[in-house]
Design goal:
Elements: H1 8-12, H2 16-23, H3 30-57, H4 59-69, H5 76-98, H6 106-118, H7 121-133, H8 140-156, H9 160-171, H10 178-194, H11 198-216, H12 222-242, H13 246-262, H14 266-278, E1 304-306, E2 320-325, H15 331-347, E3 352-359, E4 363-364, E5 367-368, H16 371-384, E6 390-394, E7 410-414, E8 420-424, H17 429-444
Parallel strand pairs: 2-3, 3-6
Antiparallel strand pairs: 1-6, 2-7, 4-5, 7-8
C-alpha cells in the first residue's frame, strides 16, 4: 500500500534488454541453402554478434544478482560503476565486431544494439541504417525492431525528419508493437519540444498516447500500465497547452481520470487529478467518456471478516457498495471513519453498504504480532472507533491490485450492478463532499 514513484519518461525510453527480448532472431536456414559455405560462415558470425550483445546486455543484472547473493549493501556509487562497466563492455564488443569487414545481416543489427547499450547513438544509427539497407534477408520482426531503434536514436539526436520517415515505414509494415510505437512517437515529440516547436510535437505526442492506451489493454503489470498511460497522456496534455490548445489539453487530462474508473486504477486517477488541478481547473468529477464502460471487479480476497457480512460482491448486487481501503497506522484513514459511519447510517436503508478493506501486516503499532493478535487488535479498534460497517481483512495486499490502490485512504464506489463508478483518494473535505454526491446519485439510479 505504498506509493511507488517512477519516472514515466524513463520507463518509456528504449531498453536494449527489451530490444533483445522482443527481436533476438537468428538468421534463417534458407540462407545456407542459397550461399553454401559463405552463408554458414555468415551464420556463425551472426551468432557471435548475438553472443557479444547478450554478454553485454546481461552484464549489469548478473553483477546485481551477485551482489545480492553476497549480501553486498546497496551503494549508488557501486551501481553507477556497474552500469558504466556495462557500457564499456558494450563498446568493446561493438569494436570487436567492427574490425571484421564487411559487417552484414544480423551482425549489423546486434552491432546497433551494442552501440545503443553503450550510449553511442551515432554508431547505432549507422549500424541500423546499414542493416535495413542490407540485401541479406531478415525476419520482418527484426526489420521492424531495427526501424524502432533507428527512429528512437534519430529522434534523440534531433534528426526529426529521419525519425519521422522511419516511423512512417514502421507504421505501414508488420508486425507493429504498441510499446514501440509509444516510444518512437514520444521521443519524436520530445525532439520537437526541445526545438520549442509545439505545433509539430502535438501529432506524435497524440500518437504516443494512443499507442500507450493500446499497450495498456494487454499489460500484465498494473503499475507499469498506469505509468505508461500517465506518462504519455500528461506529456500530450502539456504539449497541447503549450501549443495554444489548452482546452484540448485539459480534455486529455480529464479523459485520463475517466479512464481510471474504467480500468479501474486509483493510482492513475490520483495522478491525473493532480494534473487537472495543476492546470488551474476546479475539482470535480471527470466527464463521462463514450466507449469507456465501467468494469465489474473481482471478488474481494477475505481471510477474516469482522462483522456480519455479506462482503461477497456478487451477493451485494442491487446495493451501492463503498469499499474503503485503510490501515490502522494511516492517520487520514482514521479521520475518514466517522464520515463513513455517518454515510452508512444515513443511507443503509436505501441500499448503501460500506466495507472497510484492510490486510494483515504482521505487526501491531510497529511491533511484531501473530495473525490472531492482529485480528484481535482490529476488533478492538472497530469497537473503540464505534465503526458500524464490516471490516474485510485480507491475508496480504491482493485486493489492492484490481483497483490500482497506491495510497491510503482510497475509496471505491460500486453501483447496484457491481460496476466501479467512482474513486476517491484523499480525506479532504472536497473529496468527501463529491463522494457523498456520487453515493446519492447511484442510490437514485435504477438497477
Amino acid at each position: 500500500m505504498k506509493r511507488v514513484s517512477t519516472s514515466a519518461l524513463a520507463l518509456l525510453l528504449v531498453s536494449c534488454a527489451a530490444a533483445r527480448g522482443q527481436a533476438g532472431a537468428r538468421p534463417s536456414n534458407a540462407q545456407g541453402a542459397e550461399k553454401g559455405q559463405n552463408s554458414r560462415d555468415a551464420g556463425a558470425a551472426a551468432s557471435e554478434a548475438q553472443t557479444l550483445y547478450d554478454q553485454a546486455a546481461q552484464y549489469a543484472q548478473k553483477k546485481f544478482d551477485e551482489f545480492k547473493k553476497n549480501n553486498v549493501p546497496y551503494d549508488p556509487l557501486l551501481e553507477q560503476k556497474t552500469l558504466q562497466e556495462q557500457k564499456d563492455l558494450a563498446l568493446q564488443n561493438a569494436a570487436r565486431l567492427a574490425v571484421r569487414a564487411p559487417l552484414h545481416g544480423t551482425d549489423l543489427y546486434y552491432a546497433g544494439l551494442l552501440y545503443v547499450l553503450a550510449g553511442k547513438g551515432e554508431g547505432a544509427l549507422d549500424s541500423m541504417r546499414r542493416f535495413l539497407d542490407d540485401s541479406e534477408p531478415a525476419p520482418p520482426a527484426l526489420k521492424q525492431r531495427a526501424r524502432s531503434v533507428l527512429a528512437q536514436q534519430a529522434a534523440q539526436l534531433g534528426l526529426t525528419e529521419e525519425a519521422e520517415r522511419v516511423l512512417a515505414e514502421y507504421a505501414k509494415s508488420e508486425p507493429r508493437v504498441a510499446a514501440d510505437l509509444n516510444r518512437m512517437n514520444l521521443l519524436l515529440a520530445s525532439a520537437y519540444v526541445k526545438k520549442k516547436d509545439y505545433a509539430r510535437a502535438a501529432a506524435p505526442a497524440g500518437e504516443a498516447y494512443q499507442a500507450a492506451l493500446e499497450y495498456a489493454r494487454t499489460a500484465t503489470d498494473p503499475q507499469q500500465r498506469d505509468t505508461t498511460i500517465y506518462g504519455a497522456g500528461s506529456f500530450y496534455s502539456s504539449v497541447l497547452v503549450k501549443a495554444g490548445r489548452r482546452e484540448e489539453g485539459v480534455r486529455v487530462a480529464q479523459e485520463m481520470r475517466a479512464r481510471a474508473f474504467a480500468i479501474p486504477s486509483a493510482r492513475l486517477y490520483g495522478r491525473a487529478t493532480e494534473l487537472v488541478l495543476s492546470q488551474g481547473e476546479p475539482f470535480g468529477p471527470p466527464p463521462e467518456v463514450a466507449g469507456l464502460e465501467p468494469p465489474v471487479p473481482p471478488e474481494l480476497n477475505v481471510a477474516e471478516l469482522i462483522g456480519r457480512g455479506p462482503v461477497k460482491l456478487s451477493e451485494l448486487r442491487g446495493k451501492v457498495v463503498l469499499l474503503d481501503f485503510w490501515a490502522t497506522w494511516c492517520t487520514y484513514c482514521v479521520k475518514t471513519m466517522p464520515r463513513l459511519n455517518a454515510l452508512q447510517e444515513k443511507y443503509k436503508d436505501r441500499g448503501l453498504v460500506v466495507i472497510g478493506v484492510n490486510e494483515f501486516e504482521g505487526n501491531v503499532q510497529g511491533q511484531p504480532a501473530t495473525r490472531a493478535q492482529e485480528l484481535e487488535y482490529f476488533r478492538q479498534f472497530k469497537r473503540r472507533m464505534n465503526v458500524s460497517y464490516d471490516f474485510a481483512v485480507a491475508a496480504d495486499g491482493a485486493n489492492d491490485t484490481p483497483y490500482g490502490v497506491a495510497t491510503l485512504p482510497t475509496a471505491v464506489l460500486l453501483d447496484r450492478r457491481g460496476r466501479v463508478r467512482f474513486l476517491s483518494i484523499s480525506a479532504s473535505e472536497a473529496e468527501a463532499e463529491m463522494l457523498k454526491k456520487m453515493i446519492v446519485k447511484l442510490l437514485d439510479e435504477k438497477e
